[in-house]
Amino acid sequence: MGATDFFEPANGRNLSRAFFNAKCKAAWEHGHREYSGTVYDKDDVILIDEPQRSLPEATRLAKELLDARDPRVFPKVGPAGALPIETDGNQPGWLFFGLAAC
């Protein structure tokens, strides 16, 4: 069984709600099966840092963390990482990322 990177932006009134929204979106798009290779497979999330970034900047940092095998997000059985992102809406946003089994 392998693993794949995922990058899923989502909005919500707080980190927990946005994580729930990201998981629901992934389940809708990829089904409710284990080993989907998406954020749906993650049970926990860890906030990496606080400064808001644009989505492209956050994605670049997320890729760097995965390439560097950052222990906060590298194990496919570990938590998803979260980086705050700028949004156009009235709710905060986060980029959820990590490795998921596929």
TrEMBL record:
Highest taxon, organism lineage: Bacteria
The protein, known as: Uncharacterized protein
The species this protein belongs to is: Streptomyces violascens
